[in-house]
Design brief:
This protein is α+β, with helices and mostly antiparallel strands. It has one domain (3-101): Alpha-Beta Plaits, CATH 3.30.70.120. It has three helices and four strands. Strands 2-3-1-4 form a four-stranded antiparallel beta sheet. A hairpin with a 2-residue loop joins strand 2 and strand 3. The longest helix is centred in the N-terminal third of the chain and has 13 residues, at 13-25.
Length: 106
């Protein structure tokens, strides 16, 4: 079983909560942490932009990445939301087992 963290940005805390709650309710993630108040500086359509955003960190199985990505995209207001997968190479085995128990089996 491969566990991953997904790093997702949202326009604000409310959008992050809505997306995070959906992922957990649908067993696409065992847990979602929300970090509010992040400032992003990025290039979009030829311009440099600065915005406040919220970050979601979702803990899930690698086999669920595509379903999680599709679900986030369906809920998100951005046309190209940031959704990145980061492999987990170790950690508390009990916690990793808990993630496995609280996500869909594929």
């Amino acid at each position: 079983m491969e566990i991953i963290l997904t790093y997702i940005t949202a326009k604000d805390r409310e959008q992050a909560r809505m997306i995070g709650r959906s992922l957990v309710e649908e067993n696409l993630a065992a847990c979602v942490n929300i970090i509010d108040g992040m400032q992003s500086i990025y290039r979009w359509e030829g311009s440099i932009c600065e915005d406040n955003e919220a970050v979601l960190i979702a803990k899930t199985r690698s086999s669920l990445l595509q379903k999680l990505t599709d679900r986030v995209k369906s809920l998100h207001t951005y046309s190209c939301p940031c959704i990145l997968a980061i492999p987990v190479t170790g950690g508390n085995i009990s916690y990793l087992d808990w993630i496995e128990q609280n996500t869909r089996a594929e």
